[in-house]
Specification:
The complex is a heterodimer of chains A (about 550) and B (about 350).
Chain A lengths: L1 H29 L4 E6 L14 H7 L7 E3 L10 E3 L2 E7 L4 E6 L13 H13 L15 H6 L10 E4 L4 E5 L7 H4 L28 E7 L3 E6 L18 E6 L3 H9 L5 E2 L8 H6 L5 E5 L2 E6 L10 H10 L2 H8 L5 E3 L30 H11 L5 E7 L2 H16 L3 E7 L1 H9 L7 E2 L1 E4 L9 H5 L20 H13 L4 H18 L2 E12 L9 E2 L3 E2 L8
Parallel strand pairs in A: 1-10, 1-11, 15-16, 15-17
Antiparallel strand pairs in A: 2-3, 4-5, 5-7, 6-7, 8-9, 9-10, 12-19, 13-18, 13-19, 14-19, 20-21
Helix pairs in contact in A: 8-10, 14-15
Chain B lengths: L23 H11 L1 H18 L1 H8 L12 E4 L2 E4 L1 E3 L8 E3 L20 H37 L1 H16 L2 H15 L1 E3 L2 E3 L5 H10 L1 H16 L2 H8 L4 H37 L11 H9 L7 H28 L3 H6 L1
Antiparallel strand pairs in B: 1-2, 3-4, 5-6
Helix pairs in contact in B: 1-12, 2-4, 2-12, 3-4, 4-5, 4-7, 4-8, 4-10, 4-11, 4-12, 5-8, 6-7, 7-10, 8-10, 9-10, 10-11, 10-12, 11-12
């Protein structure tokens, strides 16, 4: 009898489980279909995943292109971990210098062509052939990369990336161990595209994809259309889950105001642009359930050129840091719910972050108030009082307002400053080129991957400073040899112990802050405003809203 | 033969003595004085100019504010209570910061604050100074150069006229706004350096020069036409017969007759120049921050149009009123200076 009861209980549980999972399955399947309508003010340039370096398309690439590895497609911090994607697994050998990947079988590109090791090898060569913006930074550690960087057209990466068709493996050899290499393999520049892809920028001609969607058409003046990849099957839910909408479109040309109104009216589902400041209150009250505010690992800062007056003087740079009222800037950005004052490089909660703020009344761990008196004193001591300064900012609403504010602060403490806005299309490269003699400008940096080096080494390392080049991300031109040595030590330390490396990165962060090659302004938060019909909003800290994981029906 | 404008002789009444002929300028002034609408507009214009000239007085002694300094963390007094200039939303998700709206208190943010927490009323007055300065200076440049070109081309004719007229045609061929925008885009970014002549990128002289130059053909061509016509008039031919030199002919016979055309054009050009300045500044290629003009204030107001429309509306209304006043005044001046106006009206 007891056995009979137990059997009954087991059957009941099994029945319930079948009903529940069946219902859940049916529920998610029910949501498949429809068209997700995205909006953006303008197109993001080339659609080539190995060249494009904009959040606009990196967000879409998550649902279309794959690399050997991928950041987990999940909400929150889980998105910072990498998982095998086109590779079924990998091993690291030779003290971290050799990475061997086994390719998954049965994966096809959206044109029906099967994925092979030949495509993987060709894709890595292509990173250099098309002069990917990160070819010299992320992938320069691959054996043969230095030759490829010199003569991209004939790049073979001989000895660097080796395919074995029989074993279905790809071996990548590095010149030195790189603990961050797994992250670099998971960003879109390491996407795998067919070996037959042109060795030049594909521009508006979409390359075949491996993910759940392919690009059906792209007109940068009008619209980008993504449709379901008929050859896609879900091989790893963590790496590349199937999407819900049948079609995803991104239309261009509307002003931000019009985009917000269109979403409110249900004519579109999402906008890439940050909502205008004067619509925030409306969104936060009338449309609160459709407004998603998320914390970012990013910072807004004002790089100061340490190689030309007046900011070649340390006291002048520190004076700017003391004078800036971060609360005022937070207000420009939309208030304390959308930004947090900051003084240092590494954002809160980021590896290596140890709260530090010397540039405030009552210096300590957090910013409290500006110290204008001290700033004025430092300007007088620097001998730069009355120096002419031009604050460069991109022409969008918020950055322009930050530029105007900074000019106002500089005038208050004794400089003769004015703000100048330039088109957002060129502002980023303009500020990088030393020929333009930019003294101070408004910038933001959003992490490429979750490592302190992506902020400190990339933005303030000597290797990132290339005078006369449009690709000199170290805009301050800051090259402090002792600090740079410590950065290399920290990178080396990552090979053995991330906690120890992060402790060193924290020290470097504080030292860079003390040297003030920039004025850190605040840590931003991100707003996504979606239409009423958008469900299952998932925000990945790595690549933001997972577009295809939301449903519209 | 000076003062070639023929004065209007009042009709004789009864058998009394003949009335003394009135000079043309006085006659024009009398006509203008009879035009009440034009006078009202002149008064309005005067008020605007005086108010703008008093901008520092208002900012420092009435509103106690620096209109060029951001005041995002500041406070002001409304109904006796201290309130923040930038108001943080406390409802719903608590998103957004809105500048304070008009308080209608001359001492405290009369027209509210802009997105930097600055006093809109004070900026409006300072902006008006720049707008009026640029408009007036540009109109002067246009009038002076157009007069010179028109006189020389029309008087000397031949190859001189051919060259100058073709030059004017080249400038005329470009849509005026397109030309002004192109010049501003190039020059505002870099400034101008021609030998000892140097203008920095933020200088007010740049928009003045650009606007002043692009409108020259619009005034020079009618002047040239009028000079061509005057050149064949009997009084000029008589002066030539008497052996008058070219210089004397231009100075004494032609110039006084075309001067009225320039005077009629001036207020109209001033209005057009102010509109052009506003357009260029709205596009960020006119007056550069931290300086203000009505165009830049409209641009600032665009960012808060949804919540604080007064920021953009106030300079918009100021431009509309000024341009209206100038146009009506210009019409009044034309009617006053045109000796045939009365006859036309009788027709």
């Amino acid at each position: 009898m007891r056995n009979g009861k137990a059997l009954g209980a087991v059957l009941l549980v099994a029945l319930v489980a079948i009903v529940v999972t069946g219902a859940a399955g049916a529920r998610t399947t029910d949501h498949r279909g429809g068209t997700l309508k995205l909006l953006a003010k303008a197109a993001g340039g080339t659609l080539d995943p190995q060249i494009n370096y904009t959040l606009e398309y990196w967000q879409l690439y998550q649902a279309s292109y794959d690399g050997l590895l991928a950041f987990t497609k999940a909400g929150g911090n889980a998105a910072f971990t990498t998982v095998p994607d086109l590779a079924s697994g990998y091993t690291i050998r030779n003290g971290g210098k050799q990475w061997v990947f086994t390719l998954r079988k049965g994966i096809k590109f959206s044109n029906g062509q099967p994925l092979t090791v030949k495509d993987v090898v060709a894709s890595f060569q292509r990173i250099f052939k098309v002069k990917s913006p990160t070819s010299g930074s992320f992938y320069s550690g691959i054996v043969g990369a230095s030759k490829c960087l010199k003569t991209p057209a004939t790049c073979t990466l001989a000895g660097g990336v080796i395919g074995n068709a029989k074993k279905n493996t790809v071996t990548i050899n590095l010149t030195a161990p790189d603990p961050e290499f797994k992250y670099k393999l998971a960003v879109p520049h390491a996407s795998i595209v067919p070996a037959s892809s042109p060795p030049t920028d594909a521009g508006t001609k979409p390359l075949p994809t491996t993910g759940p969607y392919y690009y059906a058409s792209y007109d940068p003046n009008k619209q980008l259309v993504m449709k379901r990849n008929p050859y896609f099957h879900e091989w790893s839910h963590a790496a590349q889950p199937a999407g819900y909408p049948d079609e995803i479109t991104q239309s261009y040309g509307l002003t931000v105001e019009s985009q917000i109104t269109a979403i409110e009216n249900g004519q579109a589902d999402w906008t890439l642009e940050a909502p205008p400041a004067d619509r925030l209150n409306e969104l936060g009250t009338k449309y609160a359930p459709q407004t998603h505010v998320e914390t970012l690992t990013a910072f807004w800062y004002a790089p100061m050129n340490v190689n030309i007056p007046p900011f070649s003087n340390l006291k002048a740079r520190q004076a700017v840091n003391y004078a800036i009222d971060r609360n005022a800037l937070v207000k420009i950005f939309g208030g304390p719910k959308l930004a947090v004052p900051s003084c240092q490089v590494l954002p809160p909660g980021f590896p290596g972050n140890k709260p530090y703020c010397p540039y405030t009344k009552n210096p300590g761990t957090h910013w409290s108030a500006p110290d204008v008196a001290k700033a004025k004193k430092l300007v007088a001591e620097s001998g730069q009082k009355g120096a002419k300064v031009v604050v460069i900012s991109p022409d969008d609403e918020v950055q322009k307002a930050v530029g105007v504010y900074l000019a106002s602060v500089l005038n208050e403490i004794g400089f003769k400053a004015k703000s100048k806005t330039i088109s957002g299309n060129i502002a980023f490269t303009y500020a990088q080129n030393t020929k333009n003699k930019v003294q101070i400008n408004v910038q933001q940096w959003y992490q490429d991957y979750p490592a302190a080096s992506d902020f400190l080494n990339v933005l303030f390392g000597c290797d990132s400073f290339h005078p006369g080049s449009d690709s000199s991300i170290n805009m301050a031109g800051f090259c402090n040899k002792p600090i740079d040595r410590q950065m290399h030590q920290a990178l080396k330390l990552e090979e053995t112990s991330f906690p120890k490396a992060n402790a060193l990165w924290a020290k470097i962060d504080h030292e860079v802050t003390d040297q003030a090659p920039m004025a850190t302004l605040f840590t931003p938060r991100h707003i996504d405003f979606v239409s009423k019909r958008v469900g299952n909003f998932v925000f990945s800290k790595q690549f933001y809203w997972l577009v295809d994981q939301s449903w519209v029906q | 033969m000076s003062g070639a404008i023929v004065g209007e002789v009042p009709a004789q009444t009864g058998g009394g003595p003949a009335a003394v002929a009135i000079g043309p300028w006085r006659l024009a002034a009398r006509r203008l004085a009879r035009n009440r609408v034009a006078l009202a507009m002149a008064l309005l214009l005067l008020l605007i100019v005086v108010a703008c000239l008093c901008a520092p007085l208002y900012a420092h002694h009435v509103a106690h504010t620096d209109p060029f300094q951001s005041n995002l963390d500041g406070t002001t007094i409304v109904n006796g209570k201290s309130v923040p200039v930038m108001v943080q939303s406390t409802q719903g998700l608590g998103l957004g910061v809105t500048p304070i709206g008009p308080t209608w208190d001359l001492h405290h943010y009369f027209l509210g604050a802009d997105e930097q927490g600055r006093d809109v009323a004070a900026r409006l007055l300072y902006g008006g100074r720049n707008s009026l300065l640029i408009g007036t200076s540009a109109a002067l440049i246009t009038s002076a150069l157009a007069l010179l070109v028109g006189l020389v081309a029309g008087f000397f004719g031949g190859i001189v006229d051919g060259v100058l007229s073709r030059l004017l045609d080249v400038v005329w061929a470009f849509p005026v706004y397109l030309l002004a925008i192109s010049l501003s885009t190039v020059l505002i970014a870099r400034g101008i350096s021609w030998g000892p002549f140097h203008l920095t990128s933020g200088s007010l002289l740049l928009p003045i020069a650009i606007i002043g130059l692009v409108y020259i053909p619009y005034v020079a061509r009618p002047i040239r036409g009028e000079v061509l016509s005057l050149r064949r008039r009997e009084f000029v031919e008589a002066a030539i017969g008497l052996g008058a030199s070219n210089w004397r002919l231009i100075w004494s016979d032609v110039l006084p007759n075309v001067l009225t055309t320039v005077i009629v054009f001036f207020p109209l050009m001033l209005a057009i120049d102010m509109l052009t300045e506003a357009a260029l500044s709205f596009l960020s290629i006119g007056v550069q921050p931290p300086q203000a003009s009505w165009g830049t204030i409209i641009l600032d107001g665009q960012d808060v149009l949804y919540t604080r429309p007064a920021v953009a509306l106030a300079p918009g209304i100021a431009i509309a009123l000024t341009v209206l006043a100038l146009n009506v005044l210009g019409d009044g001046v034309r009617d006053a200076l045109d000796p045939r106006a009365k006859l036309r009206r009788r027709d």
